[in-house]
Amino acid sequence: MSPRTSRSAAGVAAPSADLPRRRRRAHRVPVALLLPALLGLAFLTLPLVGLLVRAPWGDLSEQLTSPEVWEALRLSLICATAATGVSLVLGVPLAWLLARTDLPGRRLVRALVTLPLVLPPVVGGVALLLVLGRRGIVGSWLDSAFGITLPFTTTGVIIAEAFVAMPFLVISVEGALRAADPRYEEAAATLGASRLTAFRRVTLPLIAPGIAAGAVLAWARALGEFGATITFAGNFPGRTQTMPLAVYLAMESDPQAAIALSLVLLVVSIAVLVGLRDRWLSTP
């Protein structure tokens, strides 16, 4: 073998020999990053572990079947489902407006739509009172003209939950609409379909997974809503007392019931994450 061939072979063999070593160095986690990451993981998971450890597993069935807990659970499921229905009826067209039209001031509209995501829920409840309360901008007219009173009613719970949950649906559906190919709608239009027919027959089936994901997120957010609900609808057992409000009240008188209700909300949250793992938790 000539010296040139040896140098060439050596030049090829050397990187091949060093490749596993380089990969090991690349996958080695720096201690300066590993320790804060482990502390962050412990900070997020230890409270949940504590909830599971301190749960009254022996009396759990008794706690969950008590009349007060069952009433709060039933009301929460009904109101969260109704709030999700309101979000679907109003949020899907709103997402289509943001994704498919050149609406003047679209960025401002999108900012207003997503504002409840960062707005403190109590502030949202106060805003709802100022608009829909008996002396509010719209509420006074509803009361005098139709005798309709929304605050401190079950309908008020649904409105408060829809207010904080709808942005999750709008964001999800808008993202699905932007990912969908608009040429299918254009093809339907060339075949004589109106925009409404194209939306109903073509667009909705295309974005159905996005709508489903947004609906599940909105439902879970509505189920866990506290601040806007207690401010706008109050905390009346059997009428406006949902599970988060029942947890808050039970912590003062019956901590075991509070833990049992918290476990229900924890299970629902885990179920939502598992159901949406392919859409929200997958990594490239």
List the helices and strands and how they pair.
Layout: H1 3-27, H2 31-53, H3 60-64, H4 67-100, H5 106-118, H6 121-132, H7 139-146, H8 154-179, H9 183-190, H10 195-206, H11 208-223, H12 227-232, H13 243-253, H14 255-275, H15 277-281
Helix pairs in contact: 4-8, 4-11, 5-8, 8-11, 9-10, 11-14, 13-14
Folded structure, characterized:
It is a single chain. The protein is mainly alpha-helical and 284 residues long. The chain is 79% helix and 0% strand. It has helices spanning 3-27, 31-53, 60-64, 67-100, 106-118, 121-132, 139-146, 154-179, 183-190, 195-206, 208-223, 227-232, 243-253, 255-275, 277-281. It is globular, with a radius of gyration of 27 Å.
Assign a percent range to the helix content: over 70%
Structural class: mainly alpha
Which geometry do the CA atoms define? globular
Number of DSSP E strands: 0
Main β sheet profile: none
Cα-based radius of gyration, to the nearest Å? 27 Å
Number of helices: 15
Distance between the termini: 46 Å
What order do the helices and strands follow?
Answer: HHHHHHHHHHHHHHH
- Report the average pLDDT across residues: 83
Structural features:
mainly alpha, 284 residues, single chain
